[in-house]
């Protein structure tokens, strides 16, 4: 982490009781926090908005393109500044069909999507295998944390897991657990495990105060229900909940259809690669149809 202070009267200035931040930002993930006592009145680029613990407004966004974002933010001085608001606690009502909550989520905290730093890349294997090799990179900074738990979604099976500490190159201990083995190891998966439950656990030294560890986890998934072989075509139909996902088509296959907008290019070995950026705090359902070259 590098902290710096800039002085730039051309890109950050006052106009009466308003402030303007007008600057091209080329970094992929960005956040801007307004000074205390100002409300947000203009943002020319799609942003998330949340209030910091000190009542300052934070806007954040991810840039999907290769160029910089010409961001322009305008804030207005508040006539009255009170104490930071303390939200009431309580459980959030359960959601119902269609993705809508049964009642307003009064305790909902907006996730800072731009801050999330998990990147996943899927390498599709030949369609008859229904398999794909993937890796996901993840930074852990919670003090004392010594494990990463990946819950294998229903309908998929995992194999050949391996993991590395990208800061040191160390290969890490990996365990695959199923059913009662999960609770026997004291692994929390958000509910009681069933006989079909499967997790991959990566163990590493506890994170010390003021430090972090960058992990890379490799796995092979097989999922005949979501990666379907149709002879001279294949269909990949899978939900992505992370902010940044990449899919690499199998060797010898071309792209025939893609439902969610993505950035498309070729890998060094000539395979088609699609990069997806989802700045919303929800899941995108990615449908890809490939055709044999």
What does this structure look like?
- This protein is mainly β.
- The chain has 2 domains: 12-77, no CATH class; 117-292, Immunoglobulin-like, CATH 2.60.40.1730.
- Helices cover 2% and strands 46% of the residues.
- It is built from 1 helix and 21 strands.
- The strands form 5 sheets. The protein has a 7-stranded mixed sheet, with no helix packed on it.
- The radius of gyration is 22 Å and the shape is globular.
- The model is unreliable at 89-98 (pLDDT under 50).
Radius of gyration: 22 Å
The ordered H/E elements are: EEEEEEEEEEEEHEEEEEEEEE
Query: What does the largest sheet look like?
Result: 7 strands, mixed
CATH superfamily membership of the largest domain, which one? tricorn interacting facor f3 domain
Which regions have little confidence, pLDDT < 50, spanning 5+ residues? Answer: 89-98
Task: Lay out the secondary structure.
Elements: E1 12-15, E2 18-25, E3 29-33, E4 38-43, E5 48-51, E6 57-62, E7 69-77, E8 119-124, E9 131-140, E10 147-151, E11 157-165, E12 173-178, H1 180-184, E13 198-203, E14 213-222, E15 227-229, E16 233-240, E17 244-248, E18 253-258, E19 263-266, E20 272-277, E21 284-292
Parallel strand pairs: 8-17
Antiparallel strand pairs: 1-2, 2-7, 3-6, 4-7, 5-6, 8-9, 9-14, 10-13, 11-14, 12-13, 15-16, 16-21, 17-20, 18-21, 19-20
